[in-house]
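Predict structure. Chain length: 237.
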Amino acid sequence: MNLGRILGGVALTLASLGALLAFGVPAARSADHLDSPATKADPTVDINDLYTWVDGNNLVLVLTSDAATTPTTKFSDQVQYVFHTTSGAGFAATKGEYNIICTFDAAQAASCWYGMDGMVKGDASKEAGLASADGKFKVFAGPRSDPFFFNLDGFKKTVATVQGAAPSLMFDTGGCPAVDPATSGVLVNMLKSGADAGAPVDFFANLNALAIVVSIDKTLVTKNGPVVAAWASTNKK
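Prediction complete.
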């Protein structure tokens, strides 16, 4: 498996910020591009997306960071990039955190630990990735075209429409407006259309991101049950 090419096969939609994966369900996705000012001060640690899916006997996890990399962009050598997983018998019943932690030195050599089961160290930027001796873990780390599709023009038009109608709308405690089905349909169409009601345009089409792609034997992350919950973080060493 060429982990460096794996992002090309991801089908993308907006989804919730948490990623819950039951084996047999194709994929879970989340997005959080362009975070708060303090986080954006070091964009290499600003997480864009977390993707998870099953590939045969392996669980694949992808973390992307930095919404606009350049040819000289590097992973930070001051933080840990972490995939957090828990497993259990069902949704909302997972436990026993199993972490995959990757760090990078100034020369971009990677060190990745998968739970207490093992670690790999070296150049993870090759397309084939860096593999453990037992074959149960692989990792790729490097710049890749941002796979997330975001129709910014449609989003802005929808936001402006809701804000313009705000005085006549009822909002719930979460700040979401109550709209009838017909209005909801209009807003959904705005989200799917370009600025002039044309085809949607991907704002990230010409942007690259840093990507850490992990493929791990799913028996390692399902020790407490077949349902896996996953999230990602960046943490100062």
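Summary: The radius of gyration is 19 Å.
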